[in-house]
Structures are given as structure tokens and as C-alpha cells.
Amino acid sequence: MESRKVNISPLFLCSWSGGKDSYFAFYRALQQGLKPAVLLNTLNEFGERSRSHGIPKELLQQQAESVGLPIEFIQTTWANYEANYIEKLKELKAKYAFSHTVFGDIDIESHRAWEEKVSAAADVKAVLPIWQENRRTLVEAMIDAGMQCLIVSCRKELADAIIGKIITRELLTEFEELGIDPCGENGEYHTFVVNGPLQQFPSTVRFSDYSVHNTYAFLNFLTEPK
């Protein structure tokens, strides 16, 4: 009797901010033949919003439901971030049996080194599907893929010009005039993907103005999905 080889796609956990880079890294990982198992997001120590981006937990849960995957959370301070991240990876590996972790970093070597370090500590392999791509070309590819990337936080001096806007080619031109990196890799801004090729339905996002905390501005969401 002839035997047939069965190809099993490697399972991955995606380090998920809800923003454009992690979203597109996930999208590229699918194109590379990997299979998603779970999303992992890091919340602030109060467990209400994501770190850096300031996205409400409920909105991230709605987005994950649209993607069709479970989402897990780490609630942590910056001081305990690495230890908590490794512990959570180990816990989730046992639960979801993934062999790879997917990250959305582009070209900052220290970020890649950290991602490889924490992944190795959990005995899984880090994959960076958008590593070393041209930053503007990368954002244009996101737009072409149908991703609607809403700017939800940014440096306070940029807020009046860009916060609350969806990234378009026209806005990329404005970025250039304002001296903003196309991907925001220098910390100029963060996004939330309202809709795109991974989602079955768009996220419902309503906001008014913004608030400033230290040197950063964050959208004020009017209602948080239940």
C-alpha cells in the first residue's frame, strides 16, 4: 500500500498589538504557510488598555473575534515585562501547541534580539515576516491589501495633524513633510487596524478628542465594545 506524506503547517502565536505591523506580519506568515493558533497582547498593569497603543481590551477582543482567533493577555508593568512574557509564552505553548512566534518588527536589531531571546526561553522559534523591508513600501503594501489603519496614539506635538486619521498614500506624503517615519518606527505614532484582509467584519470604533499623558497623545474612545 502506497504511503502518502502529510504536510502539517507549523502553528504560530502572533505577538499582537492590534496595530498595522503585527497585523501585516500575521498576514505574511499565512502566505508563508504557517497556521495561526492564538494572539497575545500586553496590557498595562491595570488590565484596561494595551501598552504603548492605549487600545481598550474590549476593542482588541472584538478585533480578535473578527479575525477568528482566541486572544490572550498579559497584564504587567514595564519592570516585570520580560519575565511575565516568557512565563506566558510557556503557558500558552502548553495550551495551544505552537512551535513559532510571529512578530511585526522591521529593522530594529535590539527588538529582534529580544524576541528571539524570549522565544528561545519558551523553546519556540521567532519569525519576523516583514523584517528589513522598505518602510514606505511596506505601508503602501498594507494599504493595497485593504488594511484600514487608524492612528490611535502619537507624540503629543503631532496629535492635531495626524491622530484619529486612517493611513492613506496622501497621509504618507504628509508624514514626509512633517518628518514622520512612514512606519512610525521612531515612536511617532501607533495604530489600530479597523478592517483588513484577516477580518470577517470591521471593528466598531468611536472616539472624540484625545488626551495627553507625559509626551504622548491617546484617542479618547467614546464607547468600548462589550
How would you portray this structure in words?
The chain has 226 residues and is of the alpha/beta class. It has a single domain (11-221), classed as Rossmann fold (3-Layer(aba) Sandwich). It has helices at 20-31, 57-67, 81-96, 109-121, 135-144, 159-162, 169-178, and strands at residues 11-15, 35-43, 71-75, 100-102, 125-127, 148-155, 189-195, 207-213, 216-221. The model is unreliable at 1-7 (pLDDT under 50).
List keywords for this structure.
Rossmann fold; five-stranded parallel β-sheet; alpha/beta; Diphthami_syn_dom; globular; four-stranded antiparallel β-sheet
What can be said about the biggest beta sheet? 5 strands, parallel
Structural class: alpha/beta
- The domain tally reads 1
CATH architecture classification: 3-Layer(aba) Sandwich
Distance between the termini: 55 Å
**Annotated CATH topology:** Rossmann fold
Q: What is the global morphology?
A: globular
Radius of gyration: 18 Å
Q: Count of helical segments?
A: 7
The average pLDDT value, as a whole number, equals 92
Q: For this structure, what is the CATH homologous superfamily?
A: HUPs
Low-confidence stretches: 1-7
